[in-house]
Amino acid sequence: MDNYLQLFERNKSSTKFKEGLIHEIIKLYTAGKIRIGSEVVTAVNEIALRFVDEILWRIINQAHNEGVKDANLDHIEKIIPQLLLDFA
Length: 88
Hints:
Elements: H1 2-8, H2 19-30, H3 38-65, H4 73-87
C-alpha cells in the first residue's frame, strides 16, 4: 500500500491542466454568460486533478487485486460503477 501512496505524492505545481482547457470546459456549462475568475479555474483544476488521481489509484488497485502488472480497459470498466456512485 505504501507504493500507492508514493506513486500519487506530487508537488502542487508539478501537474496541472492548462488554464485554457479549464476555461473552455467551464464555458460549455455557462454558455459564456458568466465571467470566470482565476480562483475558480484554480479550484476546478485541483478538483479535476484529485478526481484523476482517484481514478488512476482505483485502476491500479484493481489490476493489483487481480494479480496482473498491466492495467487495461477492462480495469477501467470495472471501477466505473463504484466511482460514479461515490461521486454522485
